[in-house]
From TrEMBL:
<feature type="binding site">
    <location>
        <begin position="251"/>
        <end position="252"/>
    </location>
    <ligand>
        <name>cob(II)alamin</name>
    </ligand>
</feature>
<feature type="binding site">
    <location>
        <position position="258"/>
    </location>
    <ligand>
        <name>[4Fe-4S] cluster 1</name>
    </ligand>
</feature>
<dbReference type="GO" id="GO:0052693">
    <property type="term" value="F:epoxyqueuosine reductase activity"/>
</dbReference>
<feature type="binding site">
    <location>
        <position position="144"/>
    </location>
    <ligand>
        <name>cob(II)alamin</name>
    </ligand>
</feature>
<dbReference type="GO" id="GO:0051539">
    <property type="term" value="F:4 iron, 4 sulfur cluster binding"/>
</dbReference>
<dbReference type="Pfam" id="PF08331">
    <property type="entry name" value="QueG_DUF1730"/>
</dbReference>
<feature type="domain" description="4Fe-4S ferredoxin-type">
    <location>
        <begin position="186"/>
        <end position="218"/>
    </location>
</feature>
<feature type="binding site">
    <location>
        <position position="198"/>
    </location>
    <ligand>
        <name>[4Fe-4S] cluster 1</name>
    </ligand>
</feature>
<feature type="binding site">
    <location>
        <position position="208"/>
    </location>
    <ligand>
        <name>[4Fe-4S] cluster 2</name>
    </ligand>
</feature>
<dbReference type="InterPro" id="IPR017896">
    <property type="entry name" value="4Fe4S_Fe-S-bd"/>
</dbReference>
<dbReference type="GO" id="GO:0046872">
    <property type="term" value="F:metal ion binding"/>
</dbReference>
<feature type="binding site">
    <location>
        <position position="224"/>
    </location>
    <ligand>
        <name>[4Fe-4S] cluster 2</name>
    </ligand>
</feature>
<dbReference type="InterPro" id="IPR004453">
    <property type="entry name" value="QueG"/>
</dbReference>
<feature type="active site" description="Proton donor">
    <location>
        <position position="144"/>
    </location>
</feature>
<dbReference type="Pfam" id="PF13484">
    <property type="entry name" value="Fer4_16"/>
</dbReference>
<keyword id="KW-0004">4Fe-4S</keyword>
<feature type="binding site">
    <location>
        <position position="201"/>
    </location>
    <ligand>
        <name>[4Fe-4S] cluster 1</name>
    </ligand>
</feature>
Length: 356
């Protein structure tokens, strides 16, 4: 990082300005954390040792850089953490979609434009405002794009606590928001960490369709539907297919049941609005997309991450869980000879379910 300007600066005033600028740029909240993540580093190491990261090798690839900001970006003294609400008004009710077995459920964060680009652009603008006020300073922006313990940093910055489902919860805004960071060498005053308020509640643990939350604050990603439908590249374990229901990209159950989400705020970013009716489109319709249609319709969206093969695999499982119908069987038969062995396997499983 470049050195901070030697001009005198009132860092307390600058911190207040940064938070104001962040809100003016569309962030819902902003806080400032230090770089000490010792306890979180131990928690991460235990999680990795238990193999709960599954095939997400990148979680272990960078050693301690994930929990030591100054090793990832030398010179880092503080982390400016921001959050942005992501569910726009008018989105189809999530529970209604989950209870409609003919519809495909897409995690609410992934319905619109890829948040990485939206937030990174805003973080860059925030850095430019800081530069305009104090001159050159060292910084680097992150939006789920490097080894960063973003939830722990956001907690330390006062933006919420990490719930028993391992998702960050804000007392006045629930958990439906994205996180982003500016690592900086500015010696800004640090905010007080958020205190936890889950109490004895365990609704998120009890509702998880695949029982992936194996203990409070401990998630086995290998059982998590978000992992199975997005990160996993091979076959979905058979015993987890029926519990997946109609969830074809991600899962929100642990957030939907969380009582703190009665305080969730609507998104103000128009780009997060659902595209192609993905907040409740019919499974048969989505299964009929050609690869070209998939690539065109998911351009600039997080859904692209699963790939076309994963898209068909996931929908095949959901069709296997759908009510028996000729329409579903015909849709599956049309993919029975698909070039992908993964797709064929899951289509065969779904057809067997439809014929049972």
């Amino acid at each position: 990082m470049s050195s901070v300007s030697t001009s005198p600066a009132d860092y307390a005033t600058l911190a207040l300005d940064i938070k104001r600028w962040a809100r003016e740029l569309g962030f819902a909240d902003c806080g400032i954390a230090g770089t000490d993540l010792g306890e979180d580093e131990l928690h991460l190491k235990r999680w990795l040792d238990d193999g709960h990261h599954g095939e997400m090798d990148y979680m272990a690839r960078h050693g301690d850089k994930r929990s030591r900001p100054a090793e990832l970006e030398p010179g880092t003294l503080r982390v400016i953490s921001v959050r942005m609400d992501y569910i726009p008004p008018g989105t189809r009710n999530a529970w209604n979609v989950l209870h409609d077995a003919e519809a495909g459920y897409v995690a609410r964060y992934a319905l619109g434009r890829d948040y990485h680009k939206v937030m990174r652009n805003r973080l860059q603008k925030l850095a430019e405002r800081i530069h305009g006020a104090i001159g050159d300073f060292g910084y680097r922006a992150f939006v789920d794009s490097a080894p960063v313990l973003e939830k722990a940093l956001a907690r330390n910055a006062g933006l919420g606590w990490i719930g028993k489902h391992t998702v960050l919860i804000h007392r006045s805004a629930g958990s439906y928001f994205f996180l982003g960071e500016l690592y900086t060498n500015l010696p800004l005053p640090i905010d007080a960490p958020a205190s936890a308020h889950c109490g004895s509640c365990r609704r998120c643990i009890d509702i998880c369709p695949t029982q992936a939350i194996v203990a409070p604050y401990k998630l086995d990603a290998r059982r998590c539907i978000s992992y199975l439908t997005i990160e996993l590249r091979g076959s979905i374990p058979e015993e987890l297919r029926e519990p997946m229901g109609n969830r074809i990209f991600g899962c929100d159950d642990c957030q939907l049941i969380c009582p703190w989400n009665k305080f969730a705020q609507d998104a103000t970013e128009p780009d997060f609005a659902p595209r192609h009716r993905l907040d409740g489109a019919k499974l048969v319709e989505l299964f009929g997309w050609s690869e070209q249609e998939f690539l065109q319709r998911t351009e600039g969206m997080a859904i692209r991450r699963t790939g076309y093969e994963g898209w068909l695999r996931n929908i095949a499982v959901a069709l296997g869980n759908a009510p028996h119908s000729d329409e579903v069987r015909q849709a599956l038969q049309a993919r029975a000879d698909h070039p992908s062995a993964i797709v064929r396997e899951h289509v065969a499983w779904a057809l067997a379910r439809q014929s049972a």
